[in-house]
Here is the input.
Amino acid sequence: MPDNRVLYEILQQVRDGALDPAAAEQLIGSLPVGTIANLDIGRTDRCGIPEVILAEGKDIDSLVKIMHSYACATGRAIASRILPEQVQAILATLPQGIIADYREIGHILILSDGTMPEPSGGTVAIVTAGTSDIRVAEEARIIAEEMGAAVLTAYDVGVAGIHRLFPALERLKTADIYVVCAGREGTLPSVVAGLVNKPVIGVPVSTGYGYMGQGEAALAAMLQSCAAVTVVNIDAGFTAGIVAARTVALIGRNS
Amino acid sequence: MPDNRVLYEILQQVRDGALDPAAAEQLIGSLPVGTIANLDIGRTDRCGIPEVILAEGKDIDSLVKIMHSYACATGRAIASRILPEQVQAILATLPQGIIADYREIGHILILSDGTMPEPSGGTVAIVTAGTSDIRVAEEARIIAEEMGAAVLTAYDVGVAGIHRLFPALERLKTADIYVVCAGREGTLPSVVAGLVNKPVIGVPVSTGYGYMGQGEAALAAMLQSCAAVTVVNIDAGFTAGIVAARTVALIGRNS
Amino acid sequence: MPDNRVLYEILQQVRDGALDPAAAEQLIGSLPVGTIANLDIGRTDRCGIPEVILAEGKDIDSLVKIMHSYACATGRAIASRILPEQVQAILATLPQGIIADYREIGHILILSDGTMPEPSGGTVAIVTAGTSDIRVAEEARIIAEEMGAAVLTAYDVGVAGIHRLFPALERLKTADIYVVCAGREGTLPSVVAGLVNKPVIGVPVSTGYGYMGQGEAALAAMLQSCAAVTVVNIDAGFTAGIVAARTVALIGRNS
Amino acid sequence: MPDNRVLYEILQQVRDGALDPAAAEQLIGSLPVGTIANLDIGRTDRCGIPEVILAEGKDIDSLVKIMHSYACATGRAIASRILPEQVQAILATLPQGIIADYREIGHILILSDGTMPEPSGGTVAIVTAGTSDIRVAEEARIIAEEMGAAVLTAYDVGVAGIHRLFPALERLKTADIYVVCAGREGTLPSVVAGLVNKPVIGVPVSTGYGYMGQGEAALAAMLQSCAAVTVVNIDAGFTAGIVAARTVALIGRNS
Amino acid sequence: MPDNRVLYEILQQVRDGALDPAAAEQLIGSLPVGTIANLDIGRTDRCGIPEVILAEGKDIDSLVKIMHSYACATGRAIASRILPEQVQAILATLPQGIIADYREIGHILILSDGTMPEPSGGTVAIVTAGTSDIRVAEEARIIAEEMGAAVLTAYDVGVAGIHRLFPALERLKTADIYVVCAGREGTLPSVVAGLVNKPVIGVPVSTGYGYMGQGEAALAAMLQSCAAVTVVNIDAGFTAGIVAARTVALIGRNS
Amino acid sequence: MPDNRVLYEILQQVRDGALDPAAAEQLIGSLPVGTIANLDIGRTDRCGIPEVILAEGKDIDSLVKIMHSYACATGRAIASRILPEQVQAILATLPQGIIADYREIGHILILSDGTMPEPSGGTVAIVTAGTSDIRVAEEARIIAEEMGAAVLTAYDVGVAGIHRLFPALERLKTADIYVVCAGREGTLPSVVAGLVNKPVIGVPVSTGYGYMGQGEAALAAMLQSCAAVTVVNIDAGFTAGIVAARTVALIGRNS
Amino acid sequence: MPDNRVLYEILQQVRDGALDPAAAEQLIGSLPVGTIANLDIGRTDRCGIPEVILAEGKDIDSLVKIMHSYACATGRAIASRILPEQVQAILATLPQGIIADYREIGHILILSDGTMPEPSGGTVAIVTAGTSDIRVAEEARIIAEEMGAAVLTAYDVGVAGIHRLFPALERLKTADIYVVCAGREGTLPSVVAGLVNKPVIGVPVSTGYGYMGQGEAALAAMLQSCAAVTVVNIDAGFTAGIVAARTVALIGRNS
Amino acid sequence: MPDNRVLYEILQQVRDGALDPAAAEQLIGSLPVGTIANLDIGRTDRCGIPEVILAEGKDIDSLVKIMHSYACATGRAIASRILPEQVQAILATLPQGIIADYREIGHILILSDGTMPEPSGGTVAIVTAGTSDIRVAEEARIIAEEMGAAVLTAYDVGVAGIHRLFPALERLKTADIYVVCAGREGTLPSVVAGLVNKPVIGVPVSTGYGYMGQGEAALAAMLQSCAAVTVVNIDAGFTAGIVAARTVALIGRNS
Here is the structure.
C-alpha cells in the first residue's frame, strides 16, 4: 500500500538524517488521519466502495465538475438519482478517454475509463415485490455489479401472487445474499428470510399511498419482522447494493 | 316494536280528539329521535350489539353500578378489558338471578340472566399469528359468540412457520369471515386474504418492541396491504368480533 | 377445477407407469404452491378478485403491456388511479376484441372482452359525507360491481347536515353492507354504524387541511370509533369495494 | 387601581420637588411592565382568572408553600390535577382563616377565605360523551363556577346512543356556551356544534386505546371538524372552563 | 318557523280526519330529523352560519353549480380557499340578480342577492403576528362580518417587536373576543390572552419551515399555552371567524 | 431429507398400486406446503436459526411449556428478553437431560441437551458505543455463538472518545462482519462502516432521553447514514446476531 | 439613546410644571413598552440584529414595500430565502442611494446605504459536511458578517471522508465558535464538538431522502448528541449566524 | 503537551538509531488517533468538559466502578440523572481522599479530590419559566460551575406573569449568555432573546400534558422561534450548561 510507504519513507528519511524530527512530526500531522493511525485500515481501498455521488439536489455545474474530476482521477465515477438534464450536462463535456454509461431505470450514470470491475467471487440475488420497485432494485444491482458481484434478479414476484415466488427462489438458489425490495406493506423480505438460510436485506420502497404510504409502513414492517432481516433506508437500493457486494466479497476473500 | 306503537297511539289519540295537536307536537318532540324520524331504523335492537362496557379506566363503583343495572334491565351486560379487582367487586354484590361468566384470557366479564344468545347462522374464523395475540383474539371470539355466531379458532399459526398456516386454513374452510390477529409486522391478515375468498378483518396487536412496536407497524402494514383486508384499532378484538358477527348474521337473515 | 386435474393426472400417470416417481416429484415441485398444497384453497378463482393494476407510479409502457396482457389472457383488466395520459396510451393500441370503459370520476379503466360480471346476490350501499369523497366512493362502487355486487349509493349526506342522512339510510335499507367514505373528521361511518345493524366499512378520504388533514384525522377517528366499524387505508375505495363485494357474496353462496 | 396610584404618586412627587426626575425614571423602570405601559390593560384583575396551580409534577413542599401563600395573599388559591397526598399535606398545615374545598373527581383543591365568587351573568353548559370524561368536565365546571359562571351539566350523552343527546340539549338550551368533553373519536363537539348556534369548545379526553388512543384522535377530529368548534389541549378541562367563563362574562358586562 | 307548521299541519289533518294515522306516521318519518325531534333546535337558522363551500379540491363544474344554487336559493353563498380559475368560472355564468364579491387576500368569494348581514351587536378583534398571517386573518374577518359582527383588525404586531403589540391592544380594547393568528412558534395568542380578560381564539398559521414548520409548532404551542386560549385547525381562519361571530352574538341576544 | 422421502414414498406407493391416486392427492394436500412445493427450500434446517422464544409479554405457564417442549423435541430452546421470575419457573421444572444456561446481562436463557453448536467458519465482531448498549450486544453475541459463529467483542468504544475506537478496530480486524450497537445519536455504525470494508449491521439502542430518545434518533441516523450500513429494529440484538451468523456461515459454506 | 430622553424630558416637564402629572401618566402609558419599563434593555440596538425579512411565502408587492422601507429608514434591509423573481422586483424599483447585494447561493438579498458592518471582534467558523449544505452555510455566513463577525469556512469536509476534516479544523483553529451544517445523519457537529473546546452550533440540513430524510434525522441526532452541541431549526443557517455573531461579540465587548 | 512529546521522542529515537523505522511505524500506529494526526487538537484538555456519566439506565455495580475509577484517576467524576439508590451505593464505598457532593434537585453527584474548578472568566444566567423547570436548570448550573463559570439564576419568571421577567433580566444584565428553561409552550427563551443581545440557549422541559406535552411542544416552539435561539434536547440542562460554560470561557481566554 502506498500510504504505508509514505510513512515508512518519512521514518527512513529521519533515520538517514535527511529529515528533522520536528519537520517529520509536522509532516505526519498533515497526512490523512486514516493513513497513519490505523495502518491496515487506512489503505486506499479502505472501504472498497466506488465513489458515488448523490446527484439529487446538486446544482448542475457542481455535479459536472465533481463527476469529471472523480472520473479522471480514479477512472470511475457513479452518480445516483440523476436527472436527465444532469446527465445531458455531464455528457456534453465528457473528458477524453472517459466512457459514460447511463442506466435510465436505476437513474444512475457511470463514468469510467473503460476498465471493468474485478469479480469478487459471490452472487447477490435482487428480488422485487412489484414492478414499481424495479427502479430501486436496479440501483442495488448496478452498484453491486460495479463492486464485482455477480447478480441474479427476480422482479415482480410479490406475495400478492405468492405462487410466483417459489420458482423464483428456486432459480436464485445459488445466491449468497438476497436484496429484497418491496413497497406498500413490505412483506416480501420477511417471507424470503423465512425460506432461505442466507442473509436478507430488506429495502422499503416508496410505493403506496395514504397512511404511511411513502415506504414508512414497509420500513416499519421490515424492522418488526419476526424473520431475520436487516433493513436500509426507504428507496436506498444503493446502500443495499454496497452491503450485499461487501458481503459476497467475503467469500472470494476467504476461498 | 313498541316505539312504533307509541307514535301510532299518539296519532290515534289526536284523531280521536283525545289529544290536542299542539300537545301531540310537544309529546312527539320529547321522544328519542331514532324512535320517530326513522321508524325502521330506530328499533330496540337497532344495532344487534349487546351493551359492552369498556372497564379500563372506569372507577370500580361506577363500573359495578353500570354492570348491575344493565344486567338487570336487559338480562345481559358485558365488560371488556376488565381488571381482576373490578371483577371481584362486581361479583361481590351480584344481583339475584344474575349469572357471572369471567373469561380471564380475554379480560371479559359477562353478566346474564342465564339465557343464551340465539344462533345467527354463520361461522367466524379467528386466527392468531402468535400466542401473545390470543388475549385479543379471545375478546373477538367471546363477543362474536355473544352475538350468536359460531366461531372456529386457529391460534399461533403465523407466517414465521408458514407451514402451520395451510392445514389451519383447511380446517377453517367452512368459515364465512376471518378475523386475523397479528402483532410485530402484521403480515398474517394479508397472507390469509390472499388465500381465501371471504372477507378478512385484520386486528393489529400491541406485541413487539422498538420502532412502532406497540402495534403501529402491524396497523400500518395491514392498511397498506395489497390484499383486501379491513382493519380495526390496535388490540380491538372486541370491534372485530362485532363486525364479524354482524357479517355472518347476513347469511342467517338472507337464507 | 383444472388445477386438481393436473395433479390428479400426474398421479394417474405414475400409477399407469407412464411417469417415473422421481420425475413426478420434480413435476409436482414445479407447480404453483397453492395448486397443490391446499387443494380447495388454491383454485383459479382463489380470491374472486379481478386483477386490478395500481396505475399510479407505473410508467406508461409497462402499464399498457400489463393491461393488454391481462385483458387478453383473462378477458378482464382493471386499472385504478389511472391518469388521462395513461388511458390514452392504452386506448391507442387496444387489442382486437377488447372493450375499454373509462370511469373518469373514479380514475378507473376497465378493459374487457364484453362479458359482464355474474351477479353475486347481495347489495352494497356506498355513502359519502361530501362531494369531495365521491372519487373514492366511485372506486369502491366500480370494483364492487365488477365483482357482481348490486350497489346503491347516497353521496353528500354528511353529518354537517345530518338531516340529509336519515332519508338516505331509509332509501339504502335493503343493503347488506355499508361502505362509508368521509374526510376531515371522518364521523359519518360511526354515525351510520350506530344506526344500522349491518357491517360498516369506513373509508377515510384525504380531504381536509392543516393538522392531520390528508385523511389522517379521519383514519384515527374511525379506528377509535365507539361504533363497530372496520377501516381501510386513506382513499382506498378500491379495497373497500372488494371486501364489500366479498361480503355480500356470502349471501348468494349461502342462499 | 393601586397600580395607577403608584405611578401617579411618583409623578406628583416629581412635581412637588420631592423626587428627582432621574430617580423617578429609575423608579418607573423598576415597576412591573403591565403597570405602566398599558394602564387600562395592566389592572389587577387583568385577566379575571383566579390563580390556579398545576399540582402535577410539583414536589409537595413547594406546592404547600405556594398554595398557602396565594390563599393568604389573595383570599383564593386553586390547585388542579392534585394528588391525594398533596391534598393531605396542604390540609395538614392550613393557615388560619383559610377554608379548603377538595373536589375529588375533578382532582381540584380550592383554598379560600370563605368569600364566594361574584356571579358574572351567563350560563355555561358542560357536556360529556361518556362517564370517563367526567373528571375532565368537572375541572371545567369548577373553574367556571369559581369565575362566577352559572353551570349546567349533561354527562354521558355521547353519540353511541345519540337519542340521549337530544333531550339533554333541550335541557341545556338556556346556555350561552357549550364545553363538550369527549375521548375516543371525539365526535360529540361536532354534533353539538351542528345543533346549537352558540359557541362550542371541544375538550379531547385521553380515554381510548391503541392508535392515537390517548386523546390524539379526538383532538385531530375536533380540529378537522366541519362544524364550528374551538379546541383546547387533551384533558384541558381547566382551560376550557376559563374561556367559557370569560365568554359568558361578556353578557353580564354588556347587559 | 315553517318546519313546526309542517308537523302541526299534519297533526291537524289527522285530527280533522283528512289524514289517516298510519299515513301520518309515514309522513312524519320522512321529514328531516331535526324538524321533528327537537323543535326548538331544528329551526332554519339552526346554527346561524351562512353556507360556506370549501372550494379547495372541488372540480370547477361542481363548484359553479353548488355556488349558483345556494346563491339563488338562499340569497347568499360563500366559497373559501377559492382559486382564481374557480372564481372566473363562477363569474362567467353568474345568475341574474346575484352579486359577486371576491376577496382576493382571503381567497373568498361571496355571492349574494345584495342584502347585507344584520349586525349582531358585538365586536371581534382580529390580530396577526406577521404579514404572512393576513390571508388567514382575512378569512376570519370576512366570515365574521358576514355573520353580522363588527370587526377591528391589528395586523403584523407579533412578539418579535412586542412594543408594536401594546398600542394595538389599546386600540382594540372595545373588542369582545380576540382572534389571534400566528405561525412559526405561535406565541402571540398566549401573550394576548395574558393581557386581556376576554376570550381569545388562537389560529396557527402554516408559515415557517423545517421541523413542524407547516403550523404544527404553532398549533402545539397554542394547545400547551399556560394562558387561556382555545385553538382551531392550522389556517382555519374561517372556523375562528364563525366561532367569534357566534360569541359576540351572545351580547346582542342578551342585551 | 426426510421430507423428500415422504413425497417420494407416496409416489412409489401409487406406482405400486398400494395407494389410490385420489387418496394420494388427499395425502399430498395435507402435507406442510414447504415440504412439497419447494423441495430444496423446505428442508429441516431451512433457515439455520435455532428456535428462539420472545419471553417478554408471555405468561409464565405458556412459556415454561413452550421452552420445555422445544428443548426436549429439538435438543435446544432459547428464550430472549426473559425476566428472572420466568427463568425461575423454567428452572424449577427442568426436564431430565436438559441443561439450562442463563445469560443475565443479555436476558437470555438457553436450554439444551448438552450438545454444542457446530462452528460455522467465520468471525463476527460486536461493538458497542457505551456500557448501556452491552445488554443488546450480548443478545447478538449469544445467538451468533449459538449459530456457530466465532465472536469478538469491543464494548464502550463510542465516538465521544473516538481514540478508543481505533485500537479496538485493530484488534477486531480478522472479523468478517461488524455488529455495532449504539444509542443516543447512533453515530458509531457509520464511523465503523467508513473504516472497514466488511458488512456492518447497525443496532439502535434505546438509551437516551428527550426527543426521539428511545432509540428513534439512533435508528434514523443509521438509516440516513452516508456510509453503507444495514439496520435492525431498536434493541434487536437478537436479529443482528442471526443475520451476522448467517453471513459468516457463507464463508464456511464456500471455503 | 433617544428613548431615555423622551421619558426624562416628560419627567422634567412635570417637575417644571409644564406638564400635569395626569397628562404625564397618559403620555407615559402611550410609549412603547420596552422604552419605559426596562430602560437599559429597550435601547434601539436592543438585540443587535439587523432587520431580516423571510421572503419565502410573501407576495412580491408586500416584500418590495417592506424591503425598501427598511432600507431607507435604517440604511439596511436583508431578505432571506428570496426567490429570483422577488429579487428582480426589488431591484426594479430600488430607491436612490440604496445599494443591492444579491448572494445567490445563500438566497439572500442585502439592501444598504453603502455603510459596512462594524467589526465585532471575534471569529466564526462555518463548516459543512457536503456540498448540498453550502446554501444553508452561506445564509449563516452572510448574516454573521453583516453583524460584524469575521468568518472562516470549510465546506464539504464531512465524516464520510473524515480525513478531510482534520486539516480543515487545523485551518479553522483560531475560530471562537463553530457553526456546523450537515444533512442525512447529521454526525458532523458531534464530531467537531468532540475535537474542539469552543461552542458548536449544529444546523440540520434538509438533504437526504426516505425516512426522516428532510433533515429530521439530522435534527434528532444533533439533539441526542453525546457531545455538547446546541441546535437550530432545519435549514436555519440564518439563526445560527445570528447566535454565532452574538457570541463572538462577547469577546470584543469584554476585551 | 505530553502527547506531542511522545511522538517527538519516537522520532528522536529513530533519528538516534535507537528505534527501527518499522518498529516506529508500528508504535505510531498504536497511538490514539487524535494524538498524532491533529497535534494541536488532540491535547489532553481537548474539550474542557469534566467527565460526566449519565447514571440513568446504568446498573449500580457498573456505575459505582466507573465513578470511583474516574474520580481516582482524574480527581473528578460527575454523575447526572442519578437515583438515590445509586448515590447510596457510590457513597457506601467511597475511595479514600474522594469527597462526594450530592445535589438532590439537579439529580447530580460530584466526586472530587477537593480541588475547585478554576474560574473561566464569564457569567452564565440561568432562567426558568416555572418551578417545575428548576431541576433541569440546576443541572445546567452545576455543570457550568464545575467548568468554572460564574452563574446567576432567576427561577419562575415565566411569561404567564411577564411582569416578573423584567426585573429579573435587569438583575441578570451582567450575564454573557442566557440558558432559559421552559416547558409547556416554551415561550420564554424567545422572549428573552428578543430583549437581550447576548446568546440565548433554550432548554425545553418535559413539563406539560396532553398533545406534545412531554416537552415536544416547547422544543418545536424554540426551534421555530423568530428570535435567535439555539436549542438543546428536552431536559438537557447538562448540555446547555456545558455549552454556556464553553461560551463564557471565550471571554477569559480572549481578555
Q: What stands out?
A: Chains F and D do not touch (no CB pair under 8 Å). Chain F has two domains: 5-112, 123-254. The first helix of chain F runs from residue 2 to 15. The first strand of chain F starts at residue 52 and ends at 54.
